[in-house]
Structure formats: C-alpha cells, structure tokens
Amino acid sequence: MFKPCIVVPVYNHEQAIATVVHDLLRHQVVCILVDDGSAPPCAAALERLALAAPAHIILLRHVENQGKGAAVISGFRQAAAQGFSHVLQIDADGQHDIADVPRFLALAQSNPASVIAGCPIYDASVPLLRLYGRYATHILVWINTLSLRIKDSMCGFRVYPVAPVMALAQRTAIGRRMNFDTDILVRLYWDGLDVVNLPTRVTYPSDGVSHFRLWRDNVLIARMLAVLFLGMLRRAPQLLLRTWRRR
Q1: How far apart are CA 57 and CA 154, in angstroms?
Q2: Which of 1, 152, 173, 179 has its CA 20 to 30 A from that of 130?
Q3: CB 77 within 8 A of CB 122
C-alpha cells in the first residue's frame, strides 16, 4: 500500500505559507501542517487555510516552539494514526520546488522501503557561508556512514516510509531542532534503509525569514555529529560490509 501525505513544519512563515499550501494542494495529497508555536499572525493564517480546505488539511499545534525536528515528528505521529504509509517533508518558506512533489512521490512509490532525499541544486540566493558549512557536514556524514550514499543530509525536502521512522523515534532521541534532518537520515541509514538521491532546485527563502540560529544550531549540529561518530565506531564492521557489497 502506498498512501502518502505531506508534513509541513511551520514557525512564523505567515508571508509564504498560503502560497506553499495552495501549491501543495494541487497535487491532491493530504497536508499535515504543524504550527510550532507561531506568533498570532502565522497562527491565524494557518487557521484560515485549515478552515478553507478541511478535507485536505490537518492542522496540529504546539503551544510553545519546540523546534523543526519536534514538529516533523508530531506530523509523523499524526500520519501514522491516520494510516498513511509515507510522509513527504517540505519546508514552509517556499525554498523548495513544489513542482517536484510528483517526482518525489513517484520515486517513493517505486522504492517504498527507501528514503527519497532531495539533493539541492542552488541558485544565486544561497548564502555562501551556509553553503560551505553544508559541505563540511556532508564530509562528516560520509564518515559517519562509511559511505557516499547520502549526497546531502540537510535538505528538508524528502520522502520517508512512516513505519521505520516511528520505530526509530520510539527507541532513540532524534534531534529536535535544525539538527533533525541530518540526524534522522544517518540513523535510518544505520537501520538499513537505502537512500535514493533526487536533484531538486532550492532557493533561499521566499519570505526573507530564516530560523537557523548560527551559534545555537551549529553547536547542536556539531554535538550531533560527534554523537553519530561514536555510534559509527561500533557499527563500523557492518557499515563497511554494506558499502563493500554495493560495489
């Protein structure tokens, strides 16, 4: 069974979210919007969207901001409760190419046990400092998986099978903020899921709002990568064997 939904974590993107949701609804897939403690203007915008399309939008709310990862996991719990088999995760600020949603879902349907991971094609809007930082993270992810299979671990445009994510979340504390995307992808790879990389265009961001906090989030990402490195060491024989078998 392939029954996908879309999960959008939202925190104060009232300028972009209506356009993002309207474009997503064109693909006839249920959208789970997770309001991660947004201020009243964004909360009201989300309420209007949910009331306008009750058959296609599920609105969840966090009373206080808990972080992107926590919002996505809340969306996963709702997706599991509703019987969805796969979740397409996409950001709320309009940076991802929503026209690629059918490509992601088609690839997920033909690879139902894999993660379909967006591999960004950037335009001139990408901040160079963040771009260089991403490459540093990519190298550490390749070390922590002993593989080049994950081309980009930080893109928030991807499709997951629901069951393995719920199993992972029940036994492991996954990064709750901007460390989420890398943390969950490496751990799912450790659990044996394949990663299928899909190039997709990315811009930064349409509403001029970024919630990446330079010091806080870089510290969280550095700590996460260190923890993953320790986890890789005890998994090294299995990871090396897996990489060798793929050659």
Answers
A1: 26
A2: 173
A3: no
Size of the chain in residues = 247
Query: Distance between CA atoms of 14 and 41, rounded to whole angstroms?
Result: 6
128-163 residue pLDDT tens: 666 777 788 899 999 999 999 999 999 999 999 999
For residues 23 and 224, give the distance between their C-alpha atoms in angstroms, rounded to a whole number.
34
Contact 164, 191 (CB under 8 A): yes
What is the residue-wise DSSP string for 145-214? HTSS--S-S--S-EEEEHHHHHHHHHHS----STTHHHHHHHHHHHTT--EEEEEEEE-S-TTS-----H
Helices (H), the chain: 17-25, 40-52, 68-81, 101-110, 128-145, 162-171, 180-190, 214-246
If DSSP codes are grouped into helix, strand and coil, which group holds residue 33? strand
Over the stretch 11-38, which tens digit does the pLDDT of each residue have? 999 999 999 999 999 999 999 999 999 9
Taking a C-beta distance cutoff of 8 angstroms, is the pair 48, 22 a contact?
no
Rg (CA), the chain: 17
